[in-house]
Amino acid sequence: MNKKRLYAIGAVIIVLLLVVGGILYIRAQGTKDEPAGTVTATAAPTVAVGYTAGDPTGTSEISPTDIAEAADNSAADSQATAVPTSVSEPSEAPTAAPSPTDLLTATIAPTEAPAGVTEPTEAPEPTKAPTAAPEPTKAPTVTPVPTKAPSATPVPTKAPKETAGLACPSVNGALQVIGSQLCDAAGNAVQLRGISTHGLAWFPAYVNQALFSEMREDWNVNIVRLAMYTDEYGGYCSGGDKSKLKKLIKDGVSYATKADMYVIVDWHVLNDRDPNKYVSDAKTFFDEMSKEFASNNNVIYEICNEPNGGTSWADIKKYAAEVIPVIRANDKDAVIIVGTPNWSQYVDQAAADPVKGETNIMYALHFYAATHKDDLRNKLKSAVNKGLPVFVTEYGICDASGSGSIDTASANKWVELMDSLGVSYVCWNLSNKNETSALIKSSCNKTSGLTADDMSGEGTWLLELLARNSGSAGKTGGGKSDGTGDNGGTDKPDEGKSDTGNTGDNGKGDTGNTGSDDTAKTDTGILPTSGKTGDIAWEFSISNSWNSEGKTYYLYELKVTNTGNSTVDSWKIKVDTSAECEISSIWCAKADISGKTITFTNESFNGSLNAKESAIGIGIIIGTPG
């Protein structure tokens, strides 16, 4: 065998040894004990270019005989076993085992990816890194957090006017009491200014969405009071239609909510005097209402309007101790207003002995500017300074009868004081009743869409006040409206509108008032106490008396009883007075004066009396000179 052939055989053997060594190396998974003579991957490219995996091509064919002869003659030429100078051992084991493809094809990539390995056609691009998390344009200065989460945020029927300082549920949330101050959900002091309805049983038409939205958007009102009488004709506890009255309350709350206003549910105690008289009815009513409005953030509960007739503060506290827990069982955070003695005037007694163990409690004070002056203003100031949270849930700018002349000087002093103390206040009353305190002229039959020409003297004064105060809670200063309107002077029979809800509210004269011209009276008045005409017996009792503008006023309550054994369809009584007089106001009856004789007759709704039945809730305010 010639030398060239021997060299070829030797070269083939070396290549085979390299291939076998590479395979063994791969199987060893990086084992450091390599077989002798193994050639590293760095040498593979010089001899293996052109190979595909598992099939070396392009080499000379070598038979087994050639391999054997090469082995037999290996000693004949020392070059046959010499490792080419271009092949060398690695100085150390590679850090990662090369793949068979690397060994066999070197820089040539496989035409297909090995089975089981999925290679992307190209590296996927990231979807896109967000530039930056969006930040709010500006954090709100205060985000009100209601003490209870409402089921739904009230949505006004229209966007309310932008009036700085005008609190509303959609912005200020549920109210709370902090110290002597009414505050919003975030703890900021708020002041509410608004209007009370008259008795819902007598003037239900004013409870409508259009008017409530109008009051909010055009008049700057942010609270409305729903006055539901308890013991008068049509009263909740005296034969009134309970279902209808409750529906008016629920509708009123809904209308106020849509108009973005707060709303007072008022249990209007008056003729019943002591709220304990109907405490069971009150508990049932407030249980239903507080369940109904538990998720609202705008409802306030006034649990007894004007306790009177000798009802003590202890009596009122006893009543409150029964009613408040009923509300709290359903609504643990709502603001609750408690009336005070003497037609909600003796706030000093409440300040000396407030309700204990309860939060978010306020106390009512009521005034009529022409009757209640410095003495009652001083009581308010003193009570608030002692830490009592007071809410004026009813006031008028005429005298305590709800009629008579307007006293704007006294009214403006009241407003200045209330604003300086941050006390909220609600004006009586939303009706066209023929009396001074009605906000709408008696000649106007509209129930919405009211203009300036439709407003009474008190209504004109109130709208001017609300316009001045819409953007601040500060002092207002004096107003200029003289507010006589068409409802001033002596009240006349109300042509079908007579009701026990007359704003006189049985007098409200502050018997302890010692203001400039408000001297308390304690005499027996000018009417006889009792008498009888046929089967009709009658009784007069004085609830209050006071002096104002050189006249003495008496508030009488009249009870008429059928003492016979059969029903009567009407009644009439005549009484003689001890002095010349005039009737300032009358409700639930009609009267005619001739000299010193007054003839009283029934209204259409209380003339029919069964045997032994009585007509009650009749009120008369009589004025005499001197």
Describe the structure.
By secondary structure, this protein is an alpha/beta fold. Helices cover 25% and strands 18% of the residues. The protein has helices at residues 3-27, 44-48, 64-72, 100-105, 169-172, 209-218, 242-258, 279-292, 313-330, 341-344, 347-352, 374-385, 408-421, 457-469, and strands at residues 176-178, 181-183, 193-197, 223-229, 262-268, 299-302, 336-338, 361-368, 390-396, 425-430, 530-533, 536-548, 551-562, 572-576, 582-587, 590-594, 597-601, 614-625. An eight-stranded parallel barrel has the order 3-4-5-6-7-8-9-10, surrounded by four helices. The protein has a five-stranded antiparallel sheet with strand order 11-12-13-18-15, with no helix packed on it. The protein has a three-stranded antiparallel sheet with strand order 14-17-16, with no helix packed on it. Helix 1 packs across helix 3 (64-72) and helix 8 (279-292) runs parallel beside helix 9 (313-330). It is elongated. The N and C termini lie far apart (162 Å). Residues 30-164 and 471-523 have low confidence and may be disordered.
